[in-house]
Every structure is written in structure tokens, then in C-alpha cells.
Amino acid sequence: MLYLDEKTTAALITHELAYKAVKAAFSAVQEQHSSIFPVVNASGQIEGSIFSLKSARTDQLLGWKMGSYWPYNNQVGLPNHGTHIFLLSPDTGEMKAILSASLVNAYRTAAADAIAVDLLARQDSTVLALFGTGHQAKYEALAISKVRNLSKVIIVGRNQTSANQLAQELSDEGLTTDIKTAQEACESADIIVTVTASTAPLFESSWVKSGTHISAMGADKIGKQELPPSLFENAT
Fold this sequence. Notes:
With 236 residues, the protein is of the alpha/beta class. It contains 6 helices and 12 strands. The longest helix is centred in the middle third of the chain and has 19 residues, at 102-120.
């Protein structure tokens, strides 16, 4: 059995590799022998702790991803988010590989966003409005920068310190950044990406320019909301 620890997988992953793999995975969903199974959500005894199992198969691969979130880990020097991938032999059910893949998962999520932008956003899109300043936000911006020539990333965040830190990290990667209000960001943006844990709309639909692409990455379960419902009245 193959085991790859976090250090190994983190050294191997790139935005280009993630883009290629996720695009292949999206295509595989359409294949006759592919299936995606219902997600299993569970919680730990620590308040706010959650983990989920997401499983799928093709005629060549069979397995699941376990994602976890323990909200107080950062207080003891551990990451709050964790990801492991388990692969079985489709012929015998034997465990073939276990991968610790927390950083890989950040790239994977961002790659899904980048694929949507690449396929759906205007080719001349250059200004990205990024809502959220948490762990995932940086990877979203960097992945999109691989598929569009970004002139600016406008950051919108609730915490000024976190927004400043994200701006510095993206600047260190060669991106031009600015920190604005939600309205200012929407009115300037060609692409809007929301990557938050919000349970209420982050902006007004009237602030969004015609032709803007939106990727809502954070609203991934019941109770979470990032977009105003009125936005869908004129959306394609």
C-alpha cells in the first residue's frame, strides 16, 4: 500500500497539476461507469468540529475523501482544516493508497473555481473581487491568475488585519491588490469570488455589473449563503 504524507503531497502539488486533474474529474462524471455517492456529514465532540466523507468511483478508481474542521486547533499549533484521501482497488476492495492532502485540497478547490472562470468568464476579464480572507482565499486568487491576466485583486474582508495579510501574500506572488468595500469591489469587478462561511448575502445584486462572472465557493451546505437571491433573476 502506498502512503504519502502531507510533506510529500504538498511538495508535489501545483496549480497546473490541480487544474488538469480536476478538469479530468469533471469530465469523468459523464462517463458510463462513474458514480458520485451521497456525502456523509458528521461531527466530533468538540463544539463546532465537523468531518465529512465524499466518495466516488470510475472504472479505474474507487475511494473517498475525508475532510475535517476542528475550530480550535490553531490554538495548539495545528491546522483547523484537514484532508485525507483513501483509494481502493476497484477489483478487490483492497486499500491501495492513503494520502494526507490538506494543501492539495486547497489547490483542488481553487482549481474548480479556475475551471469555471476559464470556461465562463469573459476573456478580457482582468479585475477580481475576492470576498473572504481566510485560508482558502489566496489559493482562489492564484488559481484564477493562471487562466486570466489579472490587473488587480480587490479584497473584501471583515477583519482589516486579515485583509492586509492576504494583500501582502498576494503581492508577494506578483499580484496587484487593493482593499475595498463590498460595493466598491462589485462595481469594479469582472470576476467575483466568494469564499466565506457567511449565512447572509455579502453584497447587493444591483452592485454587480452586467457580464460579471461569479464563483460562490463558500456556500457548500444548508444554512450558508453568500449571494442575494435577486441576483438570479438576471443571471445566466
